[in-house]
Amino acid sequence: MDKKVLMKGTDALGEAAIRAGCRCYFGYPITPQNEVPEYMSRRMQEVGGVFLQGESEIASINMVLGAAASGMRAMTSSSSPGISLKQEGLSFLAALELPAVIVNINRGGPGLGNIAPSQGDYYQATRGGGHGDYRMPVYAPAYVQELYDITMKSFDVADLYRTPVMILGDGMMGQIVEPIYLHERPDVEIPPKDYILDGAENRPSRIIKSLILDPVEMEEHNWKLKRKYDLMAHELPEWEEFMTNDAKLTIIAYGTAARIAKGAVKRARSEGLKVGLLRPITLWPFPEEAIRNLAKKTKLFLVFEMSTGQMIDDVRLAVEGKVPCEFYGRPGGVVPIPQEIARIIERYWLQKEL
Amino acid sequence: MKIVYTRPKCLKPVPNHYCPGCGHSIIHRLICELVDEMNMRGRIICIPPAGCAVLAYNYFDFDMCESAHGRGCAIATGFKRAQPDRIIFTYQGDGDMAAIGTAETLHAANRGEKITSIFVNNAVYGMTGGQMAPTTMIGQKTTTSPYGRRTEVEGYPLKITELIATLPGAAYVVRTSLANPAKIRETKKAIKKAFEVQMAGAGYSLVEVLSPCPTNWKVSPREAFAYLEEKMEKEYPIGVMKDYTAKKDK
Q1: Could you give the domains of chain B?
Q2: Using alpha carbons only, what angle is made at residue B6 by residues B2 and B12, rounded to the nearest 5 degrees?
Q3: How far from A289 is each of A226, A233, A234, A241, A314, CA to CA, in Å?
Q4: Mean pLDDT, to the nearest integer, of A238-242?
Q5: How near does any CA of chain A get to the CA of B52, in Å?
Q6: How confident is the model at residue A1 (pLDDT cuts 50, 70, 90)?
């Protein structure tokens, strides 16, 4: 039996990365994620890994690139404004097909915004964010145990598909303290890294590059990446369903918003309203099929986000107009309580005569 | 018959894309000669820049990792920290090194990263068609300084090598020139020493090479070499600015 401990989100994240074999961390301080580099600066020393505070987010993501091209499991973490700076590096990691884990502890924005929990970076995270035609798996954990498990899994996904992987949380996810099991690293077979650069000793030299000047060759590279993204879209979607079986109204929410929504669902159920929750765990690939299946049963989707409405686009694309989709949002770092969401549920329940 | 001159093994037998009279092909050759002579092929990794030398991986027959514009020293840091026993060097132009990559360069040097930078200064953005560089000379006309570089508008030529020489993390800092064969031989010696400094684990090493760009200077190759010696070497004096081995001798 794995050890059960009380742990803060950021510490769980760091510990999971260490236990997943991450031996290179590069980052730059920004609130509300400073506990991650602080944890890593202690732990990397203990396990003989590399911790380096870069001079900027741009430098840090490029250090990650160098370490990933060396064959190491490497990661960086930041928060919204810092993640904007990392987009150049993310595009290169995707183009060069290098594995890395990037953590975004999303804060209120745009601009400097504030340091409160927010989901305003959904578009940036799920649409690639950087330049060029690429996709990137994005995980949105909602519990500390899940954050721990997903962090471990992210390194495997990054290696298996040779892709950057993003973990998207917020200050609530980072600060919350919950009991978790320190699971051992899952037994996943990682293919040999035959692409890394370690000096061309007794082998032909290797080039890691994304410059492909011939448009036809560049097109082929894009199609090659697309085939990989299609494979990920097929194999990676994850979601949680809570009381959805007989739900007439189904809330769709992720991360911190989903925790709040779950509380609201329980309240509504205690009043006899048949309400359920679908919580996407992967934001890209989006669990479209799960939503399409629910669209056959439920009468109304209510998308709740801590933003002015971004994921709702993906929900509407999945639902294809078969069921009405309503939206409720609290942007700017406001975190509503379950009662508030329960009131919204009741309002729609009455308005739509469910 | 004795062979006195041949293509270095690490220099791929392919025609290069550099313009007639360009310094890159000379520097490429010097690096490849050294990789052969110092038997480094099996443990050396090069980070080429964005710029004219972006295609260096077509010519160097050792491991190469592309970099986004200016990020060479950050990527090299990642490589070196992950593989401390490998020889890592960046190959960067003036825009890459001293404009968009200033922060990455200065901080890598200041951390004393055990990497080497070969910094090719030709006072112009070559690949993009001759725009003004941070190292463009006062009065020099480029496509984005058509009236000549004016200090009150475009500021002054940036001497990043002198800046880096002030940093404790930098162990060997030198500026050389390709103006004539003797100076080219000095350049090779400087690059050799820079690699040796890295292997000794002494800190960051930097070789700035003043290099001609006849195409964007809009002069003949012969005139370009003369300009290099008469004008550029005045603004950018050649010589050793820092040498940790000299300090030890005292």
Answers
A1: 24-249 (3.40.50.970)
A2: 150
A3: 19, 11, 10, 13, 12
A4: 98
A5: 13
A6: low
Query: Do the chains contact at B79 and A88, CB–CB below 8 Å?
Result: no
Read off the pLDDT of each residue in A94-104 and give the average, rounded to a whole number: 98
Q: Quickly state the pLDDT bin for A344 (edges 50, 70, 90).
A: very high
Q: Is the ipTM of this complex over 0.90?
A: yes
A61 pLDDT above the threshold of 60: yes
> What is the band of B248 on the pLDDT scale with cuts at 50, 70, 90?
low
What mean pLDDT comes out for the span A93-104? 98
Q: Do A200 and B42 touch (CB under 8 A)?
A: yes
- Give B26→chain A minimum CA distance, Å: 21
How close B42 gets to chain A, by Cα (Å)?
4
Q: Average pLDDT over chain A, rounded to whole?
A: 97
Which residue do the tokens 């924005």 mark? A109
Mutate to test the interface with B, among A209, A214, A217 (most CBs of B within 10 A): A209
What is the phi/psi pair of residue A207, to 5°? -125, 130
Helix (H, G, I), strand (E, B) or coil at B133: coil
pLDDT at B250 over 70: no
Structure tokens at A315: 């929900």
pTM value? 0.97
* Test the B interface: residue of A56, A60, A72, A197 with most B CBs within 10 Å: A197
DSSP at A185: P
Domains of chain A (ranges; CATH) run 4-235 (3.40.50.970), 239-351 (3.40.50.920)
Identify the residue among B36, B69, B75, B80 best suited for mutation to test binding to A, counting A beta carbons within 10 A and taking the highest.
B75
Task: Using CB atoms, pick whichever of B42, B66, B83 lies closest to residue A70.
Answer: B83
Chain B hits for A26, Cβ within 8 Å: 78
Neighbouring-strand partners of residue B239: B175
CB atoms within 10 A of CB A123: 14
C-beta atoms of A56 and B103 within 8 A: yes
